[in-house]
Q: What sequence folds into this?
């Protein structure tokens, strides 16, 4: 079997940290690019600022990878929706994929987002209208549009995994599940929205594994990487207080829902299940229990 | 009246060379950015490679312009539709507009293209579906999508002038009108397609003037900059042989039409006429006559 060498960006990120071992389990030789080395594994690490185009070009050329998993993006909780840094990551992503392809790369997978879609009441299928209401969504949507055209032009095999909502070990502070779990475990009150909106949550380890399987396939185009079952935020938080044993500390309605927040965001996962052949290992209850155990 | 300082990219290009004097006539102090200085006028020239992000940032900061006209893009005839350089120009455009805004810029206008649209039989209005069939079209379309979201986020006044087909003084070789005129004037045969497809042609001096008026307005979003009247290529070429007096030299059907070439590409120019208030000075006959005279 010929060596399959995958270049991974965002390897220290929330998904990336779990994607690296998943890729290694599938026999990939992993080369991580970024500012900080990933922990553990037999990954080769190449320090580089992904916004430094000439440096990226040099390293991509030196590695000569057959596969690329591009997960890196600006993702500071609370800030990334509206940040001008999204513009830099459009350019950096195009530069990276172009360098990869021009150095002989064959197969690329990158991370998209449910924020590319025009959010509406329907379950979101990959061919639904993309009309993002945020700068982050517009930047991701546009990156995909250019990369799909570039892939078609150059014969690159290219897939775009659209992330929905995530939780699990390693989640940063400032995000729903991590903040709720920390607050309730500490016996502190947790303020949140009214909580009736439904969101599609997946366990990050499962999502990382889905990306590894997607990488190892020849499925192309956009693929929703979600659970297919949106739950009301209230139900999710109820599961968390049952795990932590801290009822009565959740303050619903403490934060307003903005107008741009839709009632439901739910993935149609037909492509993920049928074409990629991915089935998540943990349901929401088990995933939350695992998260609680791991973060102790 | 306060000084209005406009930063212009692509000032030596086909549209740019005519846009600079048009802006000066409207009282703008023009600062051109690029590799080569524009000819004539009282333009200040700042040499810079627009693909060098840090250098662009430094110069934009030093100039402190209130207005930006971004026309530069990779445009080598025959090559630009499919070139990977389109990816670089997405990034460069985002970097430029961001730097301009962050240095206090108020109003930006950039050049789009009719190739952003899903080409069909209908006259193209600005709200028509954008689904480019080319890498060039995808790159321009995506650049606009990100810049519109960025403008909405930061309060930048932003318009996107979609160019249709152009002709006029200064047109490069490798394009229809320039090549046909040169060949027929020289008494050489001119091979072309069957020529039944209809295209929306504008005189470049008029288009440049439309951009100057658009810059001087507060109209935002995409604006078709076209004539509103597509003509069959055969009619256009007939006008050219009448001007050159060289009948019988046109070899129709010498080149095939590709499948992606639509029967008609025609601009709806309602926004341009009603909102921007622009009316072209020359019709097709006069514009071609002027072009012939100028290129002698």
A:
């Amino acid at each position: 079997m010929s060596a399959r060498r995958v270049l991974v960006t965002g390897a220290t990120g929330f998904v990336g940290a779990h994607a690296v071992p998943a890729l290694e389990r599938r026999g990939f030789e992993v080369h991580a690019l970024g500012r900080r080395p990933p922990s553990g594994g037999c990954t080769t690490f190449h320090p580089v600022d992904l916004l430094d185009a000439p440096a990226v070009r040099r390293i991509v050329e030196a590695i000569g990878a057959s596969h690329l998993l591009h997960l890196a993006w600006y993702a500071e909780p609370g800030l990334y929706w509206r940040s001008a840094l999204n513009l830099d990551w459009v350019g950096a992503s195009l530069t990276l994929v172009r360098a990869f392809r021009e150095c002989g790369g064959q197969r690329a997978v990158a991370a998209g987002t449910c924020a590319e879609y025009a959010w509406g009441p329907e379950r979101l299928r990959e061919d639904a209208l993309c009309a993002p209401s945020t700068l982050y969504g517009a930047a991701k949507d546009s990156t995909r549009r250019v990369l799909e055209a570039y892939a078609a032009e150059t014969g690159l095999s290219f897939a775009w995994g659209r992330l929905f909502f995530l939780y699990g070990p390693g989640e940063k502070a400032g995000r729903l599940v991590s903040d709720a779990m920390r607050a309730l475990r500490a016996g502190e009150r947790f303020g949140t929205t009214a909580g009736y909106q439904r969101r599609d949550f997946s366990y990050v380890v499962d999502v990382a594994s889905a990306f590894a399987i997607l990488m190892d396939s020849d499925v192309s185009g956009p693929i929703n990487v979600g659970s297919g079952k949106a739950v009301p935020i209230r139900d999710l938080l109820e599961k968390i207080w049952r795990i932590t044993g801290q009822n009565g500390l959740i303050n619903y309605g403490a934060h307003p829902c903005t107008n741009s927040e839709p009632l439901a965001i739910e993935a149609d996962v037909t492509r993920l299940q049928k074409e990629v052949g991915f089935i998540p290992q943990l349901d929401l209850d088990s995933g939350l229990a695992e998260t609680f155990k791991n973060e102790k």
